[in-house]
Design goal:
mainly alpha, globular
């Protein structure tokens, strides 16, 4: 019962965080575009990706720390937990120091190799401002956040993020409307985000018996360096596109990319965040060797994620260009209507989410060393294909690299899990993918089949018209999904129906 309560709390607050992130993510970039232009918007996204490169040096230690904490937390072994936390904090404190050096180097080099129109002082000072919150995260907050997530208390971190996110949006919106400089707006953001790690530090001190002065011999974090390949691959897959566009195309292309990425990345984070509680629960089941329950739970997780991804990303693919058309109305310094790019970036992020159930099992099981090859190949595929294709295809080229890497990883992980961690036949994965494809084809028919496509177009360039279109497409998509899954996955549909009716009854009883 406690497991279910924690899973609901983590999933609920994580979902709320991502909804807030998506909403706030739409508000501020549009205000920045209107007030400062596409080049400035592209620059801030580009710099953020370059700052994210320091994440290479995390070397996957964060994920390994989380995996290492499952067993001592389940056994309430405070001494082992303290050793792992202290070792992890030492590592991230050193990383924070390296970040400072990296920021200084970036301040002097970025203005000269990036295709940007602003002055050196303007750009360098912006880099320094944007780095403040990153430093605070590494120095004060990241280990505490990992501890809370591993202990299925991620909701504490999510609530803190929700509060600071809303505060940031309100303060920045007021400053922009008052005509404040871009540097002041971003400085406000950085200072507000420093609140997050400070709050987490206070919570951990109050609720955990962590001995920060504990001495240990030998490394308490097992497989500490075996998450390197996974981590570097993740950093490359998330950060390559903007960096490649900055070097080979220019900041306006980065701005176009960022507008579409606001939408798809926000949706991707919805799925990632909703699975945080799932990973810690699977980690606990593996630690306690409850394999029968694990197998049953994984089947439900796989189907739920695939079905959710097909619905959400399928609808997104059909609605993203009309939305961007409305969102960027009046912005004329760059062409934001890119249908082919839109379809591919949605597909690439959908593929990233489809691999979630299989990646979760690998991380929860601590199979870092055994799966390094997969992550290394995916990283190389992404970089090589993106660099080669961007020269000929521009925006479309960088997304092709990400898509190919994601497809490779998803298939490889599904095979590996079925053979090495859980008793789950690869045929189940193949069946699920076939069902996904059939559903997507049916959903797409609403926009491309002549007799009905005229009922699924914007009546005017307005948000109200877009909402009406979104409702139409969503209803039709749900019908297709229900029909296909009632035929192919009847037991899961019944389980979903029972879960929804149970929640509805509880809500009615409360009222």
């Amino acid at each position: 019962m406690m497991r279910e309560k924690k899973l609901v709390a983590n999933t609920g607050t994580s979902l709320l965080l991502q909804i807030c992130t998506i909403i706030c993510g739409f508000i501020l970039p549009r205000m920045i575009l209107g007030a400062f232009g596409s080049s400035v918007n592209g620059m801030v996204n580009s710099i953020s990706q370059f700052l994210g490169v320091i994440g290479f040096l995390e070397l996957g230690v964060g994920s390994v720390i989380q995996s290492s904490l499952y067993k001592p937390l389940a056994e309430k072994d405070d001494e082992s937990v303290s050793k792992i936390v202290v070792s992890g904090q030492k590592f991230f404190s050193r990383l924070a120091s390296i970040l400072l050096v990296y920021v200084c180097i970036l301040m002097f080099t970025y203005p000269f190799f990036a295709k940007q129109e602003m002055g050196v002082l303007y750009t360098s000072s912006l880099i320094a401002i944007l780095s403040i919150s990153s430093f605070a995260q590494y120095y004060f907050g990241i280990v505490n956040s990992i501890l809370l997530t591993a202990d299925q208390r991620g909701y504490v971190s999510y609530i803190t993020q929700i509060i600071t996110l809303i505060l940031n949006t309100v303060f920045c919106a007021v400053l922009i409307n008052c005509g404040a400089s871009f540097h002041l707006v971003k400085l406000t953001t950085s200072l507000i985000y420093v609140i997050r790690p400070l709050c987490l530090s206070y919570y951990v001190k109050k609720h955990y018996c962590i001995n920060r002065k504990i001495q240990y011999t030998g490394e308490p974090i097992k497989q500490k360096w075996n998450g390197v390949a996974q981590h570097i691959s993740a950093v490359i897959l998330d950060g390559t596109d903007s960096i490649v566009l900055t070097i080979f195309v220019g900041l306006k292309a980065v701005s176009i990319y960022s507008v579409y990425n606001i939408i798809v990345a926000g949706i991707k984070q919805l799925f990632l965040s909703m699975t945080n509680g799932v990973q810690s629960l699977i980690g606990e089941l593996l630690a306690k060797e409850e394999y029968e329950e694990l197998n049953t739970f994984f089947g439900w997780v796989e189907w739920s994620i695939h079905t959710g991804v097909v619905f959400v990303f399928g609808v997104t693919a059909l609605l993203i260009v009309p939305f961007v058309q409305i969102y960027t109305q009046g912005i004329t310094d760059a062409n934001y209507i890119q249908p082919l790019f839109a379809a591919l970036i949605v597909l690439a992020n959908a593929a990233h989410c489809l691999r979630l159930p299989y990646n979760i099992v690998i991380l929860a099981g601590g199979h870092y060393k055994q799966t390094q090859k997969c992550y290394i190949i995916a990283a190389f595929l992404n970089v090589i294909i993106s660099v080669v294709a961007v020269k000929k295809f521009g925006l479309v080229g960088v997304v092709i690299g990400t898509l190919m890497a994601m497809c490779y990883q998803t298939i490889w992980m599904a095979i590996y899990d079925s053979k090495n961690i859980i008793q789950w036949s690869f045929k189940n994965f193949v069946k699920q993918i076939v069902v996904d494809i059939i559903t997507i084809v049916l959903m797409s028919s609403t926009m491309f089949v002549a007799p009905v496509k005229y009922y699924f177009t914007l009546s005017s360039i307005s948000y109200i018209s877009w909402i009406v279109l979104a409702i139409k497409i969503s209803i039709v998509s749900i019908i297709f999904i229900c029909v296909v899954n009632l035929i192919c996955y009847k037991k899961y549909m019944i389980k979903l129906y029972n879960a929804l009716t149970s929640v509805l009854k509880k809500l009615l009883d409360v009222n």
